[in-house]
Amino acid sequence: MNEVKKVKRKIIKIDEDLCNGCGLCIPACPEQALQIVDTPKGPKVRLVREFYCDGLGACLGSCPTGALTIEEREAEPYNEEATVARIKEVAPEMLEIHLQHLKEHAQELPEHHSHKMYKSMPSCPSAQVISWKKEQQTTNYEQRTIIQSELQQWPIQLHLVTPFAPYFKNADILIVADCVPFAYANFHQDFLKGKSIAIGCPKLDDVDAYVEKIKDIIETANPKSIKVLHMEVPCCFGLVHIVEEVLKRTKKKIPFDSVVIGIQGDVK
Predict the structure, then answer these.
(1) pLDDT digits 0-9 by tens, 51-90
(2) Which domains are seen in the chain, by residue range?
């Protein structure tokens, strides 16, 4: 491979003394720039190649030990073409997340970025002010049906629930991004009925605490199934990555799937 001229830019820095090899950062990196390697100190995370790292730091919040930081140094310039090729090869399901991640941070991309077209793209829906009009329907309030709540427990916040709660034991559990019930009108009837629930926000809350809490729930309650409901915005996919990583750690064979809800309330 020809030598690539280096430029001064932001790039991930890995403190191997702090890295415990847990691998939580790997699914958190949309560019698939990280890998676990065996070292004399045990498993550690390393960059696959410098040009796969865009320097935007999507992986930072996933590290429970603080081993990941961003530094500015001489490095190979980020290569979008090579990155997309790698994603398609090793994790094609991450391609859409990667593209959304670039859109979200379009204005932060450096001048040497190989795909400057992303600077003109709209940002992530979470970073925009968006509104739309719904067609108003006339309601006959005398004949309307009162929809029953399907909530069967309290509390519901992931930070507040206890893994020892009886409603989690051998249950079908929903782990839900807290915006979902507002976006999806029939949430109670279509998803919540007959299930236990924990809600949270992977963008605003403590991801490390989520990992430990979900791990404790799985190990203590032995649920029948887990379903993650999250919004289409890139940051929301973190809930899926968290559950997938916990299932790997616990080695539990629990049926798991996820559903994506659009910001206008449709199922993607």
Answers:
(1) 888 888 888 777 888 888 989 999 988 888 888 888 888 8
(2) 7-105 (3.30.70.20), 166-261 (3.40.50.261)
Please tell me the predicted confidence (pLDDT) of residue 58.
80
Instruction: Give the DSSP letter of residue 107.
Output: G
Asked if 216 and 159 touch (Cβ cutoff 8 Å), the reply is: no
Residue 83: is it exposed, middle or buried by C-beta count within 10 angstroms (0-12/13-18/19+)?
Answer: buried
**Three-state DSSP state, 84:** helix
Concatenating the DSSP letter of every residue in 46-83 gives EES-GGG--SS-TTGGG-TT--EEEEEEEEPPP-HHHH
The pTM score is 0.57
Per DSSP, 263 falls in state T
Summarised one tens digit per residue, pLDDT across range 94-119 is 777 777 766 666 555 555 454 444 44
Q: Are 175 and 221 contacting, i.e. CB atoms less than 8 angstroms apart?
A: no
Tokens read off for 228: 């993650």
52 exposed, middle or buried (CB, 10 Å; 0-12, 13-18, 19+)?
buried
- Residue showing tokens 């949270």: 200
* Alpha helices, H only, the chain: 25-28, 80-90, 95-104, 180-183, 187, 207-221, 238-250
Beta strand 42-47 with 7-14 is unpaired
d(CA 209, CA 213): 6
